[in-house]
Structure formats: C-alpha cells, structure tokens
Amino acid sequence: MYYENELKALKKSGRLRSREVVNTSVLDFASNDYLGLSHNKELHNTTCLELSKLPLHSSKASLLVNGYHQIHQDFERALCKANGFEDAVVLGSGFCANIALIESLVRKGDILFMDEKYHASGVLASQLTHVEVVFFKHNTMWELEELFKKYPRAKRKIVAVEGIYSMDGDVVDKKVFAICEKENALLIVDEAHSSGVVGDRLMGVFDLYNIEVKPNHIKMGTLGKAYGSFGAYILASAHIIEYLINRAKPIIYATSLSLYDTLLGHKGFEYILENAQILKGKIHKRQSLVKDILNINMDGLILPVVINDNTKVIEIKNELLALGLHVGAIRKPTVSKAIIRVIARLGETEEDFKILCEKLKRYR
Ligand SMILES: Cc1ncc(COP(=O)(O)O)c(C=O)c1O
Q: Is the pTM for the entire model greater than 0.85?
C-alpha cells in the first residue's frame, strides 16, 4: 500500500473522509442547491427538448478550437446584461474558475491579497510558484488597508474575496469595493454562495450593495449551486475576458462547458430573475426563522453551527440523518472549528426547516 501511513494518520485524527451515495428519501439541508432548482423537472425537460433539436448535444472541443457554441454565447450575453458587465466567459467549474483567475491574473511583481477564508481552489492557485500572496484576516478591511501600505511595491494589487463565505455564511464587507477603487486594485468576488441568494434581483453582492460595475471588478459565479446545474462563469471588462481566453489554462486547455449544463444554468438563471420577488420572500422567511429559533443572523442561506469537535459533528450528523434530516458535518482542516453546516434550502418546506431548527437548539 503506497499511502497506508497517510490514511492511518487521517483516521487517527478523525479526518478520514468517505463518499456515500446520496439518499434521496431524506430531506436535503446539506447541498448547495439553495433554491431547489436541481429538482425542477420543467427546467430539465425544456433543456433536453431544446438540445434534442440541435445536430449535436456535446461541446466537443475547447472554446478556442470549435467548442464555443451559440448556447455558450447566449448565456454569456444574458449574464452580462443582468449583471452590468462588459463581457463574460463560461467554463468547467467554480474550482477551475478560481484556478484560471489566479494563475493567469497574478503575474510576477503583482501581489494577491486574499481573505484567509477564501475557497480551497483559490488557496491552491495561490501556492503556484509565481504567485505572491498575502492573506488578510477574514473580512477585516482595516487590515487589508494596512497591507496595501505595507506592500507599496506591488505592480498590480489583486484582491480576492467571497460574496458570502462558504463555511461562515457571512457576507463580504461592502467597504472592500471602495478600498479597491481607491487603491486601483483589481477585485475578484467569488459569488458561488451569493448569486441567486442575495440582492434585489438575487444577482449577488454587487446587486445587494448596488455597486456600479467598474473596470477593476471581476465577478465569478458557479452554476452548481443556486442555479441548479454545473459549471461556472466569469464576468469582467472586455479586456480582462480577452486576456483570460488568451492566458487562462483551464479555459484554453479544456473541453468547453457541456451544452446541457450551460443551457440548464441559463434556464435556472432566467427562472431566478423571473421569480426573484417570490424567492426573496422565501429566503427572508428562512432567515427570520433562524433568528427567532436560534438567535443567529444568517446573511444568505448558510447556517453554520459551531461544535468544535471532529468526532462529535459526525455523531450529530448521523443523529439527524436517523430522523430523516440531512445536514453537512464539516471538519478540520476545512474549517478551523468543526461545524454542522445547514443549508436553509427552499427545496424543502418551511415547516420541515422549522423542525430542523428546533432540533438544532440542543447543540448550541
Ligand atoms: C466559494 C466557492 N468557490 C468555488 C467553489 C467551487 O465551485 P464548483 O463547485 O463549481 O467547482 C466552491 C465550491 O464549493 C465554493 O464554495
């Protein structure tokens, strides 16, 4: 066995992971399918019907060879229009999007200023040898400002934050937009957990804070969460998108996003825009239930319950699973203190969510 010792060490520290086939007979309060669109058969059926009328149904090649289809372009244009950006590119996944952005945008002499709680895909990319990275304390804007002063030699300053943080569930401080503008820093906002969840039209934090899109803004979003599909998009100024399609390896050297995922993501996105008011009402209801029952302020639809014990979170998860309630158990090192991660998915009823919140009371 080549990795016996490593596996033993993981087991000993309570960090050994395994995958389990999903049980669809229990209630899902664990996935990132925030709005329940992954179960919307109308979106799936219309996607299949439209694809069946085309001469092909898979994307076949990289965007830069002959894998760029009308389906990709239509979605990119719709994303630009709704979000106020000049240009967009769709690609394989949010993980790839972070690698693409950081690997290609941070050049020699540039400095990347990254929130310490940024997603693992961004952190991984920041470890590439040509990338100089400085982490700042989670969502702490005065520290970011201090770091800008400490590193005046940066040729380009590039800041990376999340719209809503995947594990803590808190929304990014609005000040980051003003600070980056003042410093002429590029700002990457990973909206994996905020697009489809916050903002007047549910477009994410740019929408929430009513930010006028500027040339230094880069927005990344995933299709595998609120949009009920798979894949990702990057929105930015035309010249940055042009640069990315010329330099970002996950865009150049990979088959373009599947046509099914792109079209389904587009349909999910349209559904969100059309139903924003109703969805927002439901989201606010979930947030006020959490406030009333658990006295926790939830900025989006992520509810982290801190347990701080890698073994205990698994026990709690199993206890809840036995009651038909599926929640996430997130352990170190993914988080600094083990949490039960609950997603207040609109795919389950308010009544069932209320039952779960009542059960969670005893773990607080
Ligand atoms: C903040 C954040 N960014 C990026 C990703 C990766 O997105 P994807 O699942 O589309 O690869 C995730 C996934 O969990 C995430 O939480």
A: yes
What's the 149 CA to ligand 1 centre distance in angstroms?
A: 31
Residue nearest to atom 5 of ligand 1 (CA): 94
Where do the H-state alpha helices sit in the chain? Answer: 4-12, 41-52, 70-83, 94-105, 120-126, 141-150, 175-183, 205-208, 238-247, 249-252, 259-274, 276-294, 310-322, 350-360
Q: At residue 247, what are phi and psi to the nearest 5 degrees?
A: -125, -25
* Structure tokens given for 179: 């600070």
Res 14: pLDDT: 78
Q: Is the pLDDT of residue 59 over 90?
A: yes
Averaged over 300-326, what is the pLDDT? 95
Mean pLDDT of 228-249: 98
DSSP state of 130: T
User: How far does the centroid of ligand 1 lie from the alpha carbon of residue 94, in Å?
Assistant: 5
Kindly give the number of the ligand 1 atom that is closest to the alpha carbon of 96: 11
Looking at the predicted structure, is the pLDDT value of residue 332 above 90?
Answer: no
190 CA → ligand 1 middle, Å? 8
Evaluate whether 222 touches 192 at the Cβ level (below 8 Å): yes
Residues with CB under 6 A from ligand 1: 93-95, 98, 119, 121, 162, 166, 190, 192-193, 222, 224, 232
Count of alpha carbons within 13 Å of 83, Cβ hemisphere only? 31
- Mean residue pLDDT of the chain comes to 97
Q: Tell me the pLDDT tens digit for each residue of 195-218.
A: 999 999 999 999 999 999 999 999
Which among 184, 188, 231 has a CA at the least distance from the CA of 89?
A: 231
- Compute the distance from residue 269 Cα to the ligand 1 centre, in Å: 17
